[in-house]
Amino acid sequence: MANEPYTEGPIHTTVPVVGPDLTFVSVTDKISSLVLKRKTPLWWFIGFAVSFLLVQLLLLTITHLVFTGIGIWGNNVPIGWAFDIINFVWWIGIGHAGTLISAILLLLRQQWRTSINRFAEAMTLFAVASAGLFPLLHAGRPWLLYWMFPYPNTMGIWPQFRSPLMWDVFAISTYGTVSALFWFIGLIPDFATLRDRARSKPFQIIYGMLAMGWRGSARHWHRYEMAYLLLAGLATPLVLSVHTIVSLDFAAGVIPGWHATIFPPYFVAGAIYAGFAMVLVLTIPLRKFYGLEDFITMRHIENMAKVMLATGLIVAYGYIMEAFFGWYSGNIYERFMIYNRMTGPYKWFYWSLILCNVLAPQIIWFKRFRRNLVVLFVLSIVVSIGMWLERFVIIVTSLHRDFLPSSWGMYSPTVWDFSMFLGTIGLFFALLFLFIRFLPIISIFEMRTILPEAELEED
Amino acid sequence: MPSGVPPECVVCREIVFVGTTCCSAVAARGFRILEIRSQGLAKLGAMPQIFRHSTNALAKVSIFGAIFILLAALWAAAELHRSSWNTGQWVERQQPIQFSHKHHTGDDGIDCRYCHTSVETAASAGMPSTETCMNCHKQIWADSPYLEPVRASFRTGKPIEWIRVHDLPDYSYFNHSIHVNKGVGCSTCHGRIDQMPIAFQASTLQMEWCLGCHRNPEKFVRPADRIFDMEWRPENRTSEHVAEGRSLLSKYQIQKSEVLTSCSTCHR
Description:
The complex is a heterodimer of chains A (459) and B (268). By secondary structure, chain A is an all-alpha fold. Chain A has one domain (33-149, 159-177, 238-450). Chain A is built from 15 helices and no strands. The longest helix of chain A is centred in the middle third of the chain and has 34 residues, at 164-197. Chain A is globular. The model of chain A is unreliable at 1-13 (pLDDT under 50). Chain B has 268 residues and is mainly α. In chain B, α7 (130-137) crosses α8 (148-156). Chain B contains 14 helices and no strands. Chain B has three domains: 1-50, no CATH class; 101-127 and 163-266, no CATH class; 128-161, no CATH class. Chain B is 43% helix and 0% strand. The interface between A and B is large, with 35 and 36 residues.
């Protein structure tokens, strides 16, 4: 069984999650050599240079923004929220796949998560970092952002606990903290492996400090498993809660098109949808360039595509329900809102969104496309664009035509809106490039536990 | 074991040090730690450790230290922000003329309103013109060298440049007349000005200080005839005292605390 190619055989037999020829030694060698031994490939330098340039663009934008004010962006009354919140929600959504893979799939004992969880968690962290910049800077005076936290201040007041924006602060900071802890704790045994294998003294010291004295004793493992499980338990509700609260930023408002009870589940599904699309966008080239086909197999790719299809269908249901509620509410503002979305000045955004998020993913139903990496890669990019369009449609079309025609307006982004967005993409990829260069992108010790070699022999 | 070759675990070929054991894969195969020790490491030679043994203690101390240093830094920031170094409370302000409130108000008994004429009718309490000073000082201490700047101002018509002691930020709206007319006495905010040879800011002027009264005005209001009384002190010891404060609220028609603490009451 172990020597058969995993692609053959009836579909219901258990196919191994990883390639057939891997052993304890080869897994450890292969993953750790990416960090320690292999020469840094040329594509890494090119990729990092491009992302780093975009980071400079981000810094330039932030500097200009802080010195001038958020008037450099295109959003203004009545469209008070635009690119900043669109991008915030987009990035936060992308992060969700990482938490889902690492926490929920761990608790559900889905072994296939092992090859991709480290990578997806890193993606979560970097996405949260990119996301966090937007509300921070939209506040206008980022150096006063600590006012959002409840602390005994000299103003004698607390933040407005009834505001969903306040809940956002807690949701995002909790999410960032738990994700970082989860990621770091998962890395400790691998840090120890790198420490023990590193040849140069500085790397031994750096990895050694990060390994926090890990020796791999039974007591260490016992505590480690407990801590990891507890953190998984903590992270699991976050998959649902964070985007629920993000959706409440809208749903708690009375703007037509926002004030709907379907928002929390619809947003959470959208987040996981966007997140898996991003994991695929990153995984497909990475496994190709690093030759990780044995670790991230077609089974992983197919599974992720299936999760994408399932969540995509939930999102499609959300769109249908939005239109239905608009009509069924009998409220002229709600009816106008959905009519305006479909036929108003931003109708192309709406129909592109339907094309990207509802129609395009239907090809995943076919195994032929599901297993075609190029098709899947392009589709994942299309879905990422679609999810961005979704937030644009929800935010801008709802705001630009509200209750009073006298206060209607139009929105167009400025060059600084785009530079900020591009800059965060650069930040995300720069961090990701650093991650794949200096840390094991796949969990070494967890991979070893799912090898056929690790199966217990029954006496 | 030849020197220079890193020792490996016999089970999984991981490079290991003295005292280390192996990976979860080994544990998953059903080995217990003791077995690995005896099978693997018993055969292995020693390799120098990266860190000295004392690093363990250092690591533990640094983790606890980080928490305490962080908490201490937060505490210090909170204290500094409330300290007179930041607020200017208790700091005596030197003026161009050695003017003593203690002498004029405490010893001579001059009413506050003799100099601060608009306190009952305007937002600003008003600073006295040089002519107000000269009303008396034409007769008393008329030749004193201390008062030469006053006489110079009187001759030239150029006002005396007093240094402001209580400087509220421009984003907060404050009106003296409403406070004075609705039971807030001078000493409630300015302290015992009749005992200050050199005036200083008696309160922090921080928002939590403003809100202390706006949230519970019944604890601070006084009868209309005691507004300029420097010795009046709020007494909230018994239920009668509190009931008296409440009755003053309705007498003055002071609004509910929701209105008094609304943002736009002070930030207009």
